[in-house]
Design a protein that fits this description.
Structural class: mainly beta
Radius of gyration: 15 Å
Oligomer: single chain
Number of strands: 5
Order of helices and strands: HEEHEEE
Largest sheet: 5 strands, mixed
Strand content: 25-35%
Length: 98
Amino acid sequence: MKLSELLSVIGSAERIRIFRQGEKEPFFVEYKGNIDLLKERGEFWDEDPIVTKLQAHPEIKHRFYKERGLIPPYEPDITRQYEFKDLTLFLYYDIFLE
């Protein structure tokens, strides 16, 4: 499946992380809707690479992670979407490319 095909079925308000083959850190972490802004620059998106894996990745973080010495969340500055007392849940779609 091509990246453009996969992205066409993911909602614009969804958080995605895109990984290139062999890399441990994603090169794109954003809302899916922000991809259109990057397409105007014609960068990587013109290649339309093949997707090898799609994974839903939940992240649960504690509101007071700093005070308690816990591991920081992937994006600590993002406003909480869901709150269960002291916990916050984010869902990322991890997309791995060929």
